[in-house]
């Protein structure tokens, strides 16, 4: 059936050109209820001592850190949210690869986004125990990382016009970003178009893509239209809107109004 078949990039690009994808239905209350139901797996913290956690990053809501913060917050797992400057980051002893964010666990570092998210997800019950579903979470992180690296790779282009044109080319129907995001769109279709990447329960991958969609749609990335995701990738937009409506997500945004004001 069509709902279970992945979309090819060429198909998605053609539909994007015709501007038809924005008509996709957002989904009903039954899908929201599924997201709020039992976690993807039993929290690893159940019945055991919680580690002392410290998340090191700038005071920024980029998805690489925000998915970990929000995962822990939604599960009620205490952590210290270290929002610091560059000097303190580089002096923290936590940047194994010289990059950030980093998650400090009982004084020891985890310094790659996917590893941090997987660890936090397992603590919070937002990382599937089923091997296939866990692989789908990993696949979503891989695809999102590729798409993110493509966009952030344009940050070094000094000429504003060239930067905007490069990004616009990526967003074309046959562009590289459209191809990568169509992969994420296909994963959502493969999972039944329920607004989730793996099964019927919320995972840390869903939180990562929620924030990444907000980043791509905020209007600050010249050359990437604000409606690019909502127009061309209805399943990603559906995921974003469903998660955005969750009470704990709304609470998190209210706790960080300088990043989410008016959003």
In short:
By secondary structure, the protein is of the alpha+beta class. The protein contains 13 helices and four strands. Helix 1 crosses helix 8, helix 3 (63-75) runs parallel beside helix 5 and helix 6 (131-152) packs parallel to helix 9 (204-216).
Give a structural overview.
This protein has helices at residues 9-18, 29-35, 63-75, 86-90, 113-124, 131-152, 160-170, 176-190, 204-216, 228-232, 234-244, 247-255, 257-260; strands spanning 53-57, 80-83, 102-105, 108-110. The two termini are 36 Å apart. The protein has a four-stranded mixed β-sheet with strand order 2-1-3-4. Helix 1 (9-18) crosses helix 8 (176-190) and helix 9 (204-216) crosses helix 11. Residues 1-12 and 17-31 have low confidence and may be disordered. The chain has 263 residues and is of the alpha+beta class.
Main beta sheet: strand number and arrangement? Answer: 4 strands, mixed
Order of helices and strands: HHEHEHEEHHHHHHHHH
Alpha-carbon distance between the two ends? 36 Å
Oligomer: single chain
What integer is the average pLDDT?
87
Strand content: 5-15%
Q: Spatial order of the strands in the main sheet?
A: 2-1-3-4
Tally the beta strands. 4
> What is the overall shape?
globular
Low-confidence stretches: 1-12, 17-31
Query: How much helix is in the residues?
Result: 40-55%
Which secondary-structure class do the elements indicate? alpha+beta
Q: Total helix count?
A: 13
Radius of gyration: 18 Å
Q: What topology does this entry show?
A:
Elements: H1 9-18, H2 29-35, E1 53-57, H3 63-75, E2 80-83, H4 86-90, E3 102-105, E4 108-110, H5 113-124, H6 131-152, H7 160-170, H8 176-190, H9 204-216, H10 228-232, H11 234-244, H12 247-255, H13 257-260
Parallel strand pairs: 1-2
Antiparallel strand pairs: 1-3, 3-4
Helix pairs in contact: 1-8, 3-5, 3-9, 6-8, 6-9, 9-11
